């Protein structure tokens, strides 16, 4: 446990928020998980129950550990339920206006010493910090999907973030048994997704121009570069629409044509071939 952080509030109980809540609870933190949708809260907890059962079945955790972790998680539909938190991790839908409104409301609910972090994959914390009267206590804490499994977490210090806040966030990540990486300056996409983006661009370029099939490109990445999964299989896993929206957002920010999604990605999205979730992306799934 971290000295400064005794209680955690997580906003958004979707794919990321629910798992982040469990990661914190497994490390011993009491967590309040908030969402505007009861269905999302229910889905989040059900999904955690299924995933924890798998870990029990595989002998990675015992029932007592899982029961204790669930006992530390409470859920709420109201942001007021997070009033006692020392750290807020916001993992709501990836829309700037939603995130700004969440932080603005929380600012008058949560104690002034508390730290606010956004788990956004693309939105730097300076875009939300000025919605609060505590910009020095706002930063990015970016988990990877699935948060229960992925070890690395990017902590990003914006120009408004104090050294102390960045240090507490960094130490907190260590305390939940993850490996923190600290970015001293904020940049959209941070480190991993910027590097991955370049890899995916090149993979799509090679496919679009007929140099090789998507299977062969994936094979090179797994067998020559030792990546656990190729770029096309990965896009199918995360959703080709996610890739599309991230690129559109980057293009809207930069105005640079090079940041636009590739034509091939646009076609896939228009056809509804979004990857595993629709049964077809670059590959076909039964
Ligand atoms: N999915 C990923 O691979 C991934 C990886 C890293 C980071 N992220 C980031 O995590 C965040 C959440 O992504 P996700 O994939 O979990 O999304 P998701 O769509 O699975 O879940 C978002 C949740 O936010 C809730 N929500 C919407 N508006 C809200 C509000 N005003 N207050 C509280 N809850 C609200 C929704 O009901 C939903 O349950 C995004 O910022 C995303 O960029 C996603």
TrEMBL record:
GO BP field: fatty acid metabolic process
Domain 3-hydroxyacyl-CoA dehydrogenase NAD binding intervals: 8-185
Keyword set includes Transcription regulation: no
Annotated metabolic or biological route of this protein: Lipid metabolism; butanoate metabolism
Binding site for NAD(+): 12-17, 35, 94, 99, 121, 145, 277
Pfam families found in the cross-reference section: 3HCDH, 3HCDH_N
Entry similarity comment: Belongs to the 3-hydroxyacyl-CoA dehydrogenase family.
Listed name of the protein: 3-hydroxyacyl-CoA dehydrogenase family protein
């Amino acid at each position: 446990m971290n000295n400064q952080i005794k209680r955690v509030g997580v906003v958004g109980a979707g794919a990321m928020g629910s798992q982040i809540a469990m990661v914190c609870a497994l490390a011993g933190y009491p967590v309040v998980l908030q969402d505007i949708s009861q269905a999302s809260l229910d889905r989040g907890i059900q999904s955690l129950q299924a995933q924890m059962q798998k870990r029990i079945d595989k002998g990675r955790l015992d029932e007592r550990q899982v029961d204790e972790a669930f006992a530390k998680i409470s859920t709420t539909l109201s942001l007021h339920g997070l009033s006692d938190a020392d750290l807020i991790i916001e993992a709501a839908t990836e829309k700037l206006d939603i995130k700004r409104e969440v932080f603005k409301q929380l600012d008058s609910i949560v104690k002034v010493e508390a730290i606010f972090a956004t788990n956004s994959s693309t939105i730097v914390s300076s875009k939300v910090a000025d919605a609060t009267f505590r910009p020095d206590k706002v930063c990015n804490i970016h988990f990877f999907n699935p948060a229960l499994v992925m070890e690395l977490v990017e902590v990003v210090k914006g120009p408004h973030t104090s050294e102390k806040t960045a240090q507490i966030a960094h130490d907190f990540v260590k305390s939940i048994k993850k490996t923190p990486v600290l970015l001293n300056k904020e940049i959209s996409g941070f480190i991993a997704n910027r590097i991955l983006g370049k890899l995916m661009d090149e993979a799509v370029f090679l496919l679009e121009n007929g140099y090789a099939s998507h299977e062969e490109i994936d094979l090179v990445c797994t067998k020559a570069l030792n990546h656990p999964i190729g770029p096309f299989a990965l896009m199918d896993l995360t959703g080709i629409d996610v890739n599309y929206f991230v690129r559109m957002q980057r293009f809207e920010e930069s105005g640079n044509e090079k940041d636009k999604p590739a034509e091939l990605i646009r076609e896939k999205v228009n056809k509804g071939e979004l990857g595993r979730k629709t049964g077809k992306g670059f590959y076909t799934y039964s």
